[in-house]
Input
Amino acid sequence: MSKVAVMGGGPAGLYFGISLKLKNPSANITIIERNKATDTFGWGVVLSDETLDNLENNDPVSAKDIRKNFAYWDDIALHHQGKKTLSTGHGFCGIGRHKLLLILQKRAIELGINLNFETEAEAAANYMEKYDIVVAADGLNSKTRNEFNNVFKPDIDMRACQFVWLGTHQKFDDAFTFIFEKTEKGWVWAHAYSFDDDTSAFIVECSQETFDAFGFANLSQQESILICEKIFKNNLGGNKLMTNANHIRGSAWIRFPRVLCDNWYHKNIVLLGDSSATAHFSIGSGTKLALESAISLAKHIDAENNTTEAFKKYEDERKLEVFRLQSAARNSVEWFEDVERYLDLDPVQLNYSLLTRSQRISHENLRERDPLWLESAEKWFQEQAGNIKSRTVRAPMFAPFKLREMQLSNRIVVSPMAQYKAKDGCPTEWHFVHYAERAKGGAALVYTEMTCVSPEGRITPGCPGLYAPEHENQWLKLTKFIHEETSAKICCQIGHAGRKGSTQLGWEKMDAPLKENNWPTLSASPIPWSPENPIPKELDESDMKSVIEDFVSATKMANRAGFDMIELHAAHGYLISSFISPKSNIRRDQYGGSLGNRMRFPLRVFKAMREAWPESKPMSVRISATDWLESEGVTPDEAVSIAKMFSEQGADIIDVSAGQTSIDANPVYGRMFQTPFSDRIRNEAKIQTMAVGNIYEADHVNSILMAGRADLVCLARPHLSDPYWTLHTAAANGDREMQWPLPYEAGRDQLWRLADRAKETG
Output
């Protein structure tokens, strides 16, 4: 059998050796570890029931010892502003890292594995010649990974917060505990959990700004510990914080490195554990990844005659799981990095935000874990929204919402969706049927597609407008129907296409010029949308005055046409957006350069519209919170400032979208991918927001609202496929308070019966 060298005697290296030896007792395995057998860093590790089952199936002997030494808890506790919030059903188990290592060392020795402690490993290249397989389980700062950096191609992202891994004899055996303390130098927080009968892990974390304010970098370990003891004295019960400084890393303040490698193997060397990929401690999956990857690697080495093929199958199998966990870890670590934006939330909402931060726990998953707490949280949400008349506790999506004098019955919005069915700017019967159906479907607010302020301001010949009397009359017919027959409100999104105008219908060639009868276009600068599009005219003062007049005229028409709300479209690369983005605005006058200058014309337009729009009616602005161009375009930082500027001019809510401002953009798509931008604007700028972007389930909506990431939630494609999405969702989820159109109540009752039957039968 092959000779195998394992560089690193942590959980990954030890458990791989055990796993391979069990499959092939003749394997000659040597584990090389530079530290003493009794050395470790950190205090406790967390494993899930799923991982324990995997260990049981792989090696019942060590699994039995591990289970005997586990501390189990079911609750998560949040300590904040002198209050403790508790939720249950989470199912954690912890074990001391030192104890885990001793169990694995003992098992490795029983199986005949060679353990060489206090041995500094040579260069990996040297072992490649001496051994058939070299497993690099040498941790976060892997020498092997660095030695073959050009092959493994690691991507190492040093996260923003500083943390120190301490221990204490204070018992946190009732719950996995999060503690947030406000100090004169900033917020400091702790992750605490028991892992044996008398010891708990106590990880202290803070922002770099707070770290610097305390001067932790220039303090000794004991000086740092004394400060931490003072900060958390109300939670330590007189117990001290402890260090394990005999380890080379000791209990030092560090920033967490997120490691991801393009390749996990090279010739007869393979990466394992933290050397190949890391997951932030806030989701407690680092050791889980290491142990389960060790099982996988051993399995494929045993099954395959060809080492390269074994490594390839191992990498293919584990990369997907690593990606999944790293995605969750990224969400979690970003939540903690930005936690100060949430610490003014009500404890109920803060706890919900904490529990769902990784997106691994959804709204309904939380209901399965702790139905009583979630029901109390939903009740709190409804009460905060002013819903005190409800017969039952309803989900957040069914909470009322008020903007100025406009009262919404729930939090669901039908997003603007271009139909390309207008004739000479005039909405047609298609628009009447389309929007009327969605207003009947239960959503509280229905948006028109971008409605253009002039013939030259249209995106396509099929786009509607508000620049002629017949337009106003047709829109009025629609709004009267909606107000007479439904409880929905309707918002007119008003915009000017700018350099993206005079293009083909959406189902033809998107953003491409018309084949004939093109009209001239305008933009902040004479930069075409693409090489295929014509060069637009750069607006001069005369053009600006004319455009503002068009927006004001459209605003007045929208009021006469009976709209409840209007929105300025300042996103997606259209005219107003072209001024905001430095990618499309290269002017050298007062309208270009700094963000303040780039916002000058958009704010002029908005102010003129707000003055023309009734005081009692709300107004929103849609923005692109990022150009997806990093520093070359609008950044999320700038988006907060943009939202503030519009808010100061009277915007009641910000409709937070992203991108579509440049063909050079590199967007990052995914479930609810634009919601973080809404979250940031809402909680940093303290401005009401709407979230939009790949939101398609009630679970998404409720999670966003309950966590305080937005105030309204916009759904587009779900409403294209099902105009009655809100009514159907309410019925499916047991909500019986949604109002249906009276002629449809028989259908409602049948849907209720079917939903109840489905619930009974599972």
Observations:
- The radius of gyration is 30 Å.
